[in-house]
Amino acid sequence: MTGRRYGGGTLTLEIVMIAIALVFAFPLYVLVVLSLKSPEEAANSPLSLPSALSFDNYTAAWEQADLAPAILSSVVITVVSVAALVVTGALAAYAIARHTSHWSGALFAVFLVGLVVPFQLALIPLYQLVRDAELLGSYWSVILYMVGTELPLTVFLYTGFLRAVPRDYEEAAMIDGASQLRAFRSVVFPLMRPVTGTVIILNAIGCWNAFLVPNLFLSGSGRQTIPVAVYSFVGEFATQWNLVFAGLVIGMAPILLVYLLLQRRMIRGFASGLKG
Amino acid sequence: MTSSTTTTASRPVATGTGSRRRRSHVSLWFAVPALAVYAVVVLYPVASGVYLAFTDWNGLSATRAFTGLENLRTFLGDGDAMGALIHQLIIATVFPLIQNVVGLALAVALNSRIKSRYVLRTVFFAPAVMTPIIIAFLWQYIYSTDGTLNTVLGAVGLDGLRQSWLGDPDLALWSIIAVIIWQFTGYAMVIYLAGLQAIPGELLEAAQIDGAGRVTTFVRVVIPLLAPSITINVVLSTIMGLKIFDQVYAMTGGGPGNATQTLTGYQYQQAFTLGNFGYGTTVALVLAAIVSVVAALQYKVLRRNERAAS
């Protein structure tokens, strides 16, 4: 709607938008700046740039919050969950989108229920189930939870995408003698690459950031994830904001790094995936 | 893949989209692994949760008595629960409204030819990626009495506006809503951007040649074409608002008093702090009913508007 050339109006818009973005990003400036300051400097001049670059808070937070094992736990849970989600979700969507009877519609509807119903309703029975299976404190408890609860979104995205993909390619493969599974593996799944990117990104964010259930299932086990570790760390050092903030930055760095590396594709894929 | 497959596969898609031909009839067995996990983790626990909501179980006793509608009656007469319900509804109304208006405005601005548009998209979407519980602690500091917000207000001479942002019962809920809006506006922006980019440029030019001004074009052409994005955004953010937990739990824990207690937080408190597993699940059941009804209604109404617009 703006003109084709870069005129005065566009320049004004550019300046206004940059100003808004600066205000918008200001909380993150506060986070980083404070994490680099000594307690005295944090109290006296919280908003200025740090007088000297010191990573003391980071080394202290790293040790006292037990962040190394927490990052390991988060990585294990995220990677295994996302891999399982891609495989099971893509297969389920393949069946739903390509099986032509009312059963596939019913199955799709069943998965959609999970997109809407708040998980709190399932929380206590699931907690009992996990406890009785003696899985409390194990990675599996959270991996199963993540796969189960993220499947609805995954199936939704994959099915929507697959319905828009013509069947010609896989039919050709099957005419050539490929089985359904083979056609899926060598034809359909590669075709789904754009939406697989979206599925991976959205689920990785979901798994990395989950708090309520990992806190219930893993706290005190030594296998706690980053959000859980950060939560107990903040509770312990609530008044030392500079130290706490270093812990927050470390806890957020991995997912933020992934975002910055993939951001172009993420924003594009995220949007097109949701459009279905 | 054999060479013959490759030749057949590279046929132009136009020879048939396959929607009418029902040859490949993929076995439903492929859905079994997903369905199995989903059944164990979601379907079965949800079903037994629904049952649990009608019992008096405290989590310890071996027996649980079926009490029928007793818990529901308790809920309706429970002032704290009603307060929590109202707070959750306020969040689920105000958050989607502002998030969508601002998100759309940002999307329109960043769909222009300004040079920094890619960097700015990255900046605005970044908070949506970050861990909510961590974001909540950052804002707890920003809002604290000697925190950033009050420091900034003091520095620009607005001392009168300095507040206890999370400590004032009249203000705390709004402070939390502001954080949620700040975090997820980029989310709406991205979906709107995708919608905007799918609009053919010729359509807009045609409207302008026909003499429509920018505002008319936006209202008459752009908004109707964005209807599917609006549906997705509004339904998603309303569901999100009705389920918000982490942010409130970390920022105020429902306080001061019960001023920011949400239904999700009240459920947690009843079940895991007080051990009222039965009643806690009733609270979750009420929430589930509300989410289902609201989401279904919104979806229906918005879809009708979509069709009317197309």
TrEMBL record, chain A:
Q: Does the keyword Endoplasmic reticulum apply?
A: no
Q: Which residues form a coiled coil?
A: none
- Domain ABC transmembrane type-1 positions: 71-262
Q: Does the keyword Metal-binding apply?
A: no
Q: How does it sit in the membrane?
A: Multi-pass membrane protein
Q: Name one GO biological process term.
A: transmembrane transport
Locate the transmembrane regions by residue number. 12-36, 71-94, 106-127, 139-161, 191-211, 241-262
From what organism does this protein derive?
A: Jiangella mangrovi
Q: Which family does it belong to?
A: Belongs to the binding-protein-dependent transport system permease family.
Q: Where in the cell is it found?
A: Cell membrane
Pfam families assigned to the protein according to its UniProt record, in alphabetical order: BPD_transp_1 (PF00528)
| Keyword terms of this UniProt record | Cell membrane, Membrane, Transmembrane, Transmembrane helix, Transport
Tell me what this protein is called: Raffinose/stachyose/melibiose transport system permease protein
Q: Which domain of life is it from?
A: Bacteria
A GO cellular component annotated for this chain's UniProt record is: plasma membrane
UniProtKB/TrEMBL annotation, chain B:
From the Swiss-Prot or TrEMBL record, state where the protein is found.
Answer: Cell membrane
Pfam families associated with the record: BPD_transp_1
Keywords assigned by UniProt?
A: Cell membrane, Membrane, Transmembrane, Transmembrane helix, Transport
**What InterPro entries does the record tag this protein with?**
ABC_transporter_permease, MetI-like, MetI-like_sf
Per the record, membrane topology reads: Multi-pass membrane protein
Q: What region holds the ABC transmembrane type-1 domain?
A: 85-298
A Gene Ontology term for the protein's cellular component: plasma membrane
Question: Which SUPFAM superfamilies does the entry link to?
Answer: MetI-like
> GO biological process annotations for this chain's record?
transmembrane transport
Transmembrane annotation, as ranges: 28-54, 85-110, 122-142, 171-196, 217-242, 277-297
> What family does the entry list?
Belongs to the binding-protein-dependent transport system permease family.
Q: What is this protein called?
A: Raffinose/stachyose/melibiose transport system permease protein
